[in-house]
Amino acid sequence: MVTFVNHAPAYMDVANSEWLWLAALPVVLLVLVQAALFMRRAWKTGKEMGLSEEQMKSGIRSGVISAIGPAVAVLVGMLALIATVGGPMAWMRLSVIGSVMFEIPAAEFGVGQLGYSLGDEGITEAAFATAVWTMTLGALGWLLVSGLFTPKMENIRQKVAGGKESLLPVITSAAMLGAFSYLATDEVVEGTPRTMAVVFGGVTMLGLLHIADKHDIQWIREWALGTAMIVGLLAGMVLQLTVGTFW
């Protein structure tokens, strides 16, 4: 007869309790309601702008396809978070605005204030609660900034453009390029696999968009971002396993 021994830390009984699942459920439901409201508002605004239903459906398809790559990354990150703070908190944190790059260090910092490290068997309920509050309050700034300052962004954009409507698309595009370039720069300097992942992903994106524009193939445009992400990911993995890191 085989006996399975549970080596999970004691606090995980609380972390995976039904009460925490019930506490996390309203937050996740709120996110789903917000998504539905945004979708309905976007559809209504699209019609007011004169967009056809086909154009709006194409935009939705592009969004869904482009979300596949990031969604897989979030899923993998959620598995890591489940192992440290339990299913309910991982579900709630990554369903709202959380990031694994932030959540795990925040949880580690929280339990560290009481002298523990994530995975220790002796972690108390108080230490776990401290980790949860650290993750929650640490992310509060993002919500406050987006809630308080997002309505002002359009006014700022208009002032930067100096009243010239033709400059607005240029400013918006420049801001997007700057944001993505900032995120990509951190990966480029990390080492060969990550650098090549950025390069392969960028070249794939440019190539697919060139083909789509040259032959006017809409579905290639819709799949371009998701495909570029996957190609970059695979390129980085292959280089890591075969060549390793040069720097």
Automatic annotation (TrEMBL):
Keywords: Membrane, Transmembrane, Transmembrane helix. It comes from the Archaea. Pfam families: DUF5058. InterPro entries: DUF5058. The chain crosses the membrane at residues 20-39, 60-85, 126-145, 166-185, 191-211, 223-243. This is DUF5058 domain-containing protein. It comes from Natronobacterium texcoconense.
